[in-house]
Amino acid sequence: MAAQAVLRSSARARLLSGAFCAQRGGPALWQHHQNQRAFSNGKILVEMDEATGVAVMKMKSPPVNSLNLDFLTEFSISLEKLEIDRSCRGLILTSAVSKIFSAGLDITEMSGKSNEHYAAFWRAVQEMWLKLYGSNMVTIAAINGSSPAGGCLMALCCDYRIMADNPKFAIGLNETQLGIVAPFWFKDTMINTIGNRATELSLQLGQMYPAPEALKFGLVDKLVPEDKVQSAAAAAMSQWLSVPDHARQLTKSMMRKPAIDRLVKQREADINNFVSFISKDSIQKSLQIYMDRLKQKK
Ligand SMILES: CCCCCCCCCC/C=C\CC(=O)SCCNC(=O)CCNC(=O)[C@H](O)C(C)(C)COP(=O)(O)OP(=O)(O)OC[C@H]1O[C@@H](n2cnc3c(N)ncnc32)[C@H](O)[C@@H]1OP(=O)(O)O
């Protein structure tokens, strides 16, 4: 895919230079065990089944898998590593943290930091989206917990979503509830999944949907009991992998390329928009109030 080609160069350069790995105290090499390979960079664990060509990526950044700069960097590098591995055809994205898929963007990365930090953070969010939404692999989200905002975006980037059938787990793009605005590419991703009107309702209200409602709304494709999420994802994966890769990949590209190209063309402008928006005093105040409420609910 065009966007993949643009993106691959920077992450691959970092991957090959080992800069990221050195920073983490050593290269994230594959460990082999029978038909399994695994690597971990700290916040992400990847296990690959060589017999099926399916990798399971587990987010393991407690307490809530919030997407901070380190996490996003590890995520994109891990994804790139799988993308360039020709033996890997499918990716199941899930969480190793009980009851949480991902709490979305780390709010502390968007509060009280320098403009340079905001720009680096937003570039990393964009990169995560470009890589996951544009992946050539079959991607299945095994949503085993709550998944607000950026966590919902990650799930929406996948080709298929299976969620634990527990009404305590909710998913949605709730940005307006924090006093912030989902950018156009979050909106495009949601429109491509549930359509324009449902997206407008959902985004304006900043709606979080408990699992059963998320299924009705089309935000997820299937609900299964909590202890069956991984096996259901593996079963769905084998169905998806029965389709010839080239035909499926070209079809995926046809569906997603307009949205991807749109961000690729305006990447720098989108970063500038984010920085000027997030650094406003009124927005910083809204985020502070939201964080205080989160802490007070205990
Ligand atoms: C004009 C247009 C310009 C466009 C400009 C763009 C603008 C920006 C767009 C931004 C896009 C995306 C935004 C996001 O993704 S924002 C993040 C939204 N996430 C949330 O609202 C989730 C909030 N968290 C929760 O609801 C709950 O924590 C939970 C995930 C349901 C888990 O509940 P829990 O009871 O199990 O755990 P809890 O005690 O609440 O949390 C544990 C600790 O983790 C902290 N925490 C939770 N979420 C976050 C987070 N997202 N970031 C940072 N920290 C988080 C929480 O505060 C607790 O910390 P502590 O133990 O008290 O210290």
Describe the structure.
The protein is of the alpha/beta class and 298 residues long. It has a single domain, classed as Alpha-Beta Complex (2-enoyl-CoA Hydratase, Chain A, domain 1). It contains 12 helices and 12 strands. An 8-stranded mixed beta sheet has the order 1-2-3-4-5-7-9-12, sandwiched between helices. It has a 4-stranded mixed beta sheet with strand order 6-8-10-11. Helix 4 (115-133) runs parallel beside helix 5 (150-157), helix 4 (115-133) packs across helix 11 and helix 6 (184-194) runs antiparallel to helix 10 (245-265). The longest helix has 21 residues, at 245-265. The radius of gyration is 18 Å and the shape is globular. Bound molecules: ligand LQQ7U7AH.
What portion of residues is helical? 40-55%
Distance from N terminus to C terminus (CA atoms, Å) equals 46 Å
Summarize the main sheet: 8 strands, mixed
CATH topology: 2-enoyl-CoA Hydratase, Chain A, domain 1
Ions, cofactors and other bound molecules: ligand LQQ7U7AH
Number of beta-strand segments: 12
> In CATH, what is the homologous superfamily?
2-enoyl-CoA Hydratase, Chain A, domain 1
What is the mean predicted local confidence, pLDDT? 92
Q: Poorly predicted ranges (pLDDT <50, ≥5 residues)?
A: 1-25
Radius of gyration: 18 Å
Q: How big a fraction of the residues is strand?
A: 15-25%
Following the backbone from N to C, one meets helices and strands in this order, namely HHEEEEHEEHEEHEEHHEHEHHHH
CATH class: Alpha Beta
Please tell me the total number of domains.
1
**Structural class of the secondary structure composition?**
alpha/beta
**Helix tally?**
12
Strand order of the largest sheet: 1-2-3-4-5-7-9-12
Return the CATH architecture.
Alpha-Beta Complex
General shape: globular
